[in-house]
Amino acid sequence: MRPYAQYCPIVRAVEVLGDRWTLLIVRELLIGKTRFNEIARGLPGLSRALLARRFRQLENAGIVVRTDTGYELTHSGEDLRPLVFGLADWGARHAFGDPQPEEMDPELLMWWLHGRVDTSEIANRAVIQIQVPDRKRVFWLVLEPDDASVCYTDPGFDVDAVLASDIATLYRVWEGEVDLMDAAKAGRLTLTGARWVVRGLPHWLQLSPVAPLVRAARA
């Protein structure tokens, strides 16, 4: 890539971080992902070969280090937190319109969602079937004490609750645009089943790390 050839700290930062996918890889690391495979799952449009190349570039720039279990941000990498979430804040206020069809991948949403469940108050297994009629997809969220997983085929457990919604509403809930229970009251989704699961799910789901920024922008 041809360098900008300007002696400026902004230029130096752009030369390190301006390649496609780089900041999204940093985003995944900032929200706690460390393993190559889980980062690849969170960025399905990124080939594994390009992901490996971007990691090498980030290592060479001193932003990440490779460990026995994956990758970690260095102090330099952690210093990107206000930049990345500052971009999220700007995006929420100035560039975040209605979701487009190509932006709504149900499998990716389920992967994100299962990683943001607080299982600390779950004493027994809870199996939540998630139905997405407009995409003709069904998923199973299996929550256990200190563990959460998502299944793309029937795991064989009894279902405790069923959450049904179109994909756009699910994404709006995930991003913090719409409260889950407000969407249910408006008839945009249904949540039925065992009372302890129906009452607990809105508290267990922590939603997107940028949801507070989206809520503030919408307010």
Account of the protein in words:
The strands form two sheets. A five-stranded mixed β-sheet has the order 5-4-3-6-7. It has a two-stranded antiparallel sheet with strand order 1-2. The protein is built from eleven helices and seven strands. A hairpin with a 2-residue loop joins strand 4 (137-144) and strand 5 (147-151). Helices cover 44% and strands 16% of the residues. The longest helix is centred in the middle third of the chain and has 14 residues, at 81-94. The chain has 219 residues and is an alpha+beta fold. It folds into two domains: 9-79, Arc Repressor Mutant, subunit A; 101-210, 2-Layer Sandwich (Nonspecific Lipid-transfer Protein, Chain A). The model has no long low-confidence stretch (mean pLDDT 96).
